[in-house]
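Progress note, project year one: complex with arginine.
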Amino acid sequence: MAKKVVLAYSGGLDTSVAIRWLKEERGYDVIALTIDLGNEKDLQTVEKRAYEIGAIKAIVRDGKQPFIDYFAFPALMAGAVYEGQYLLATAIGRPLIAKMLVDVAREEGASAIAHGCTGKGNDQVRFDVSTQALAPDLEIVAPVREHRMSREEQIEWAEARGVPVPVTKASSYSTDENLWGRSMEAGVLEDPWASPPEEIYMWTRSVADAPDTPRDVEIGFSHGRPVSLDGHEMDGVTLTQTLNEWAGEHGIGRTDLVEDRLIGIKSREIYEAPAAWTLHTAHEALEQLTLSKPQLRTKNSLRQEYADLIYNGLWFTAHHQDLAAYVHSTQRHVTGTVRVRMHKGQVVATGKKSPRSLYSYQLATYDRGDEYDHDSALGFIKIWGLPVAQQAKKQLLADGEAPFQLGTSDAGADA
Ligand code: ARG
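Model obtained:
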């Protein structure tokens, strides 16, 4: 009996060729696994194609719910944004796909998993490292990285063997999409000076085309997780899908980034992530209300670390578990509602409230309801300034010279 491999199968040219390549060149029985993370496509056709090309089994699984609940929302709660502009849609999808490949490999008694990544991107790292963490005994095969055939060569290779691969018109871009966002690269985008052509955007309207009238949406959160839109409770998948439409309509969530890949090169990627941007904006606003200053500080200082960890393929690590435990703990009072205004490519939080809010009107107001103890402020300042005054008296002012000269680089400290 031939050994089995579970291949992450998208239905495109690369992975279609891979089905036959794994069989002919490596002697595997191929199980094609197609995972739906919200990337609209005709899953039945994909499944049928896998069989036609020679897979012994084709499996289609819906990963949308775990994707949102265990990957996207945790990344949201951590405030994970890579290099200021990338909300990590592709990067958080990979570890889940790896997990599902491993699960199917176990169910089917396979000895290997396979993916269609090239040898130049981040995704190969994410698949390989995740698999090594989850199932160190499984072999990892990356046909495209190994055979290194170009698009044209793959088409010829397939035609010579009568493999029915999908030969659509060569798309000028490489795209990856899931519920959390779309990533687009290659083609004319490889010139960082070239403006992205409008037709690459599928989820967002241009600012020029976006409605003149703003739209307000109330987003409800419970313990850091988005749970409702305009007062209607819904599951995370529905909420994300709905918000992608509403925010996309207003042109929200486009970014254009020359980013630093883990494997050492800079590359240009365009993103659109309307729901994810809107949710990040709202979530941050609610944290302002419900986290203390040191909590906000510490959490902010970890955002970058968290984003890097996701980007760099280290999802299934002890370090991530530790960071996630901290983030989880910070979210226990992040419950409430944020009103965002979406207008002409911008999303702004215009209102926030929470039953656990640390904001107190009585303490903050300058009006008659003021309950702040002004006398205590006086006492506080005396103590706060005590060491400052003491040092100034004993040292800085001791020689009778003016120690703080404006415009001198050492502030006259040693005058
Ligand atoms: N640059 C992004 C990342 O490394 C997206 C990669 C996939 N992009 C694509 N257009 N196929 O996570």
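The chain has two domains: 4-173, 177-363.
Residues 137 and 322 are 25 Å apart (CA to CA).
No further modelling is planned for this target in the current period.
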